[in-house]
């Protein structure tokens, strides 16, 4: 038997490597570029990165934040995404059985890419949102326990209805707020992202995700406004807050909610 600590360490290393790949996805997907070809290259000069200097997390510090080929400054987000992915996946590995870990790891990977792109471009690609809805519903059929069901059809129906309610509700709220404020209050991509989250996590996660993401978004938004001394109206991406709230649901929110609100989690 392999020691649990060794397995957790292996998951951490895998997460760091996956995080390096997610950095590539964040950089290339909005530009319409392939995420597999060409291999990793310097974003400044385009030279291919040798394997020895392309180490996840450690590579950034070994190079002291400078590209090995041309000396260009490296974005500190690279090691943050790699370390964050590794930590997030390790926590999921320790909390869930292997089949659910694989599904939630896939979800978290998609959320990290969606968040990075939303931070850079204030948009979330349909491939991640609508694609997430399709994948969530499909996996609910293949793994009914994802929705707390035993019958695949029941699980698929629950996933589908959850996605429809989540996406439709947030879309309606966004349209109403936009009409009231006479300007766009929230992007439609956020509604699609919430639909994808509901397809994976079920309707019972929605109150928690909406409440926590709104709280985090408000706190961060006020901080940004004060720091930059800007007036209300500046656009702030909401996708990363939805993603963070969904992850918090996975690592503790669901347990707390089921403990204090048992009748809502049947």
State the helicity in percent bands: 55-70%
Assign an overall shape: globular
Total beta-strand segments: 0
Uncertain segments are: none
- Largest sheet descriptor: none
Strand content: under 5%
- Discrete helix count: 9
| Coarse structural class | mainly alpha
Could you give the distance between the termini? 36 Å
What Rg do the Cα atoms give?
A: 20 Å
Helix-strand string: HHHHHHHHH
Whole-number tally of structural domains: 2
Average pLDDT, all residues: 87
Walk me through the topology.
Elements: H1 4-28, H2 58-62, H3 77-95, H4 98-121, H5 126-142, H6 152-181, H7 188-201, H8 206-228, H9 239-260
Structural notes for this entry:
The chain has 266 residues and is mainly α. It contains nine helices and no strands. α4 packs antiparallel against α9. The protein is globular, with a radius of gyration of 20 Å. The two termini are 36 Å apart. The mean pLDDT is 87.
List keywords for this structure.
266 residues, mainly alpha, 9 helices
Summarize the structure.
The protein is mainly alpha-helical.
């Amino acid at each position: 038997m392999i020691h649990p600590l060794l397995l957790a360490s292996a998951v951490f290393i895998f997460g760091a490597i996956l995080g390096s790949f997610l950095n590539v996805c964040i950089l290339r997907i909005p530009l319409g570029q392939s995420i597999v070809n060409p291999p990793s290259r310097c974003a400044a000069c385009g030279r291919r990165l040798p394997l020895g200097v392309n180490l996840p997390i450690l590579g950034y510090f070994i190079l002291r934040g400078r590209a090995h080929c041309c000396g260009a400054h490296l974005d500190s987000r690279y090691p943050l995404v790699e370390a964050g992915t590794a930590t997030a996946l390790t926590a999921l590995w320790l909390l869930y059985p292997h089949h659910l870990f694989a599904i939630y790891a896939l979800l978290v990977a998609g959320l990290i890419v969606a968040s990075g792109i939303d931070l850079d471009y204030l948009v979330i690609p349909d491939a991640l949102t609508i694609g997430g809805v399709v994948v969530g519903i499909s996996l609910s059929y293949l793994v009914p326990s994802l929705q707390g069901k035993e019958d695949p059809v029941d699980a698929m129906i629950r996933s589908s209805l959850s996605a429809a309610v989540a996406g439709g509700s947030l879309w309606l709220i966004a349209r109403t707020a936009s009409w009231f404020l006479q300007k766009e209050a929230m992007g439609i991509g956020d509604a699609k992202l919430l639909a994808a989250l509901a397809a994976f996590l079920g309707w019972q996660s929605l109150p928690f995700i909406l409440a926590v993401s709104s709280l985090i978004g408000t706190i961060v938004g006020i901080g940004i406004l004060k720091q930059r001394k800007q007036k209300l109206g500046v656009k702030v991406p909401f996708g990363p807050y939805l993603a963070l709230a969904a992850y918090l649901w996975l690592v503790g929110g669901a347990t707390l909610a089921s403990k204090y609100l048992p009748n809502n989690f049947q």
